[in-house]
Write a structure and sequence with these properties.
Blueprint lengths: L39 H21 L5 H27 L5 H6 L18 E2 L2 E2 L4 E2 L1
Length: 134
């Protein structure tokens, strides 16, 4: 059986401009992680953090021997508090570049990127959505 003589069938994406009209771009850009609507991963992370806190502090640590309980509460408590503070700081800050922050008006609608004019949103250190150098 000779499989080298066969032509390989190559597949690739269609070159058509097929845009789904059911999915529209967001009207306004997000300021930070508190901007609604929340992302699904944010909700999953919050639920998972709560679950781990309940299981860790309510089930696992109380099952430890008496001498280890206070040390475990202190270590796990400091780790959970540090993670919570880092998570809240990461959600609260605005990740935009300083040049974008100086020019951006969050009340205006978010511009739509036209791939006919430019291949990428950011080329040569210039953002074509915000019209600023980054």
């Amino acid at each position: 059986m000779n499989c080298y003589g066969r032509r390989l069938r190559r597949t690739g994406p269609e070159q058509l401009n097929s845009r789904n009209d059911l999915v529209s771009p967001p009207q306004h850009s997000r300021v930070n992680g508190w901007s609604l609507p929340l992302h699904t991963f944010q909700i999953v992370a919050l639920l998972f953090y709560t679950y781990l806190a309940i299981v860790g502090f309510g089930i696992y640590i109380p099952l430890l021997p008496h001498g280890w309980k206070y040390a475990a509460y202190a270590v796990i408590g400091v780790l959970f508090a540090h993670h919570l503070v880092a998570h809240l700081v990461a959600i609260t800050i605005d990740p935009a570049d300083q040049n974008v922050l100086a020019k951006k008006n969050y009340s205006s609608p978010m511009p739509v990127f036209d791939r006919g004019k430019h291949k990428h949103v950011i080329q040569n250190q210039h953002c074509y959505l915000c019209e600023v150098d980054v």
